[in-house]
User: What shape does this take?
Amino acid sequence: MRTSPQTAQRHPALDAWGDYDRDDPYRVFAQVRAAGPAHPVRLADGHSAWLIVGYDEAKAALNDPRLSKDMHAALARDGGTVAEGLPGPALARHMLAVDPPDHTRLRRLAAPAFSRRRVDGLQERVRAIAAQLLDDLAVRRDDVVDLVAAYAFPMPFTVVSELLGIPEPDRADVGRWFRTLLAPHSWPPPARTVAASDAIVGYLGALLDHKRAEPGADLVTDLVAAGDAITRQEAMSTIFQLIVAGHDTTTSLIGNATVALLRHPAQRDALVADPTLVTSVVEEAMRWDPPGQHSTFRCATEDIRIGDVVIPAHAQVIVSLAAANRDPARYRDAESFDIHRAESGHLALGHGIHHCLGAPLARLEGRIALGALHARFPTMRLAVDPARLRWSHGDGLVLRGLAELPVHLA
Assistant: This one.
């Protein structure tokens, strides 16, 4: 991307943005936010961009039509200098990577599966999945348990697999491929990551063909039935995006929220004593330590003024959801985890036309998963010093979650 003019002071932490300590990024976020709401940055991959960290500015940017999501248009205009990760073009034509009217069309096709009525109808099934996983954990209550592998991952992955119609015998392989793809890796990616990416591309194409031959009551069948309203690339891309968004962020929500509760035992005890607090727990956990730390790709289509600075046309723009969610201008005692917090309106699920389509489902799963977990194991505690926890899962800049969460259940 074109280098941004220095119309804002560059903070020392803004060189190689994304190279900070991922286990404790909030100290850096606070330093940068205190220096101003928007800054030119140099990304860890060498590209220049603009970073927005203030709450009001972030909320406005997320809803600004002058910030395009069309990465392919940016690639074409910029001579291909924007790095495009795996799986690449085959799965890159989904609703998070296009602008209206294509965004409107793709979102409309997927939206019925995530309607309030449909999500409310999933409650009993989600509760049953959580209960079965907790029954399995109870057998191991004297062991150190990895809560990510045993609970936080399989619960939402099972839900989204059933929603999409991924056959049960395929799920172990599909889950392994996605875990490999989403694990941190170097660039160029190692052979195992490339192999996982190739396997996912091949599988999603085969899944579309399978549903065309044998329709079911699932979202992939709905996409096939849409006919010419969606291309094969768009259908495969949509399935890919929904699998990632439908399990990875909820996995991280469950893990991040559980760590927050275990590090604030009085608030965990309050939840155990009053299960109705689980709604507040989910919202505060998403504000305090969101699974999505930064927004996905955006590019300015014209000069845009943010506060006292001007972001130039064609500049890449990153909205730091995590930094905005702890803006003291928006939240009282913003750095504190407080499940009794009165203020609402966090940006963890985005804002505007790209607000998370699956937000009702993510909230439902979070409430059920956390409520059931802490009711079943009310004295659960970390099995390692909190300083040894590693938020290494995810793609590095956008996603934040634990690769593992060792706990004592009793």
Observations:
- The first helix runs from residue 26 to 34.
- The chain has one domain: 12-408.
- The domain at 12-408 is CATH 1.10.630.10 (Cytochrome p450).
- The CA atoms of residues 133 and 139 lie 10 Å apart.
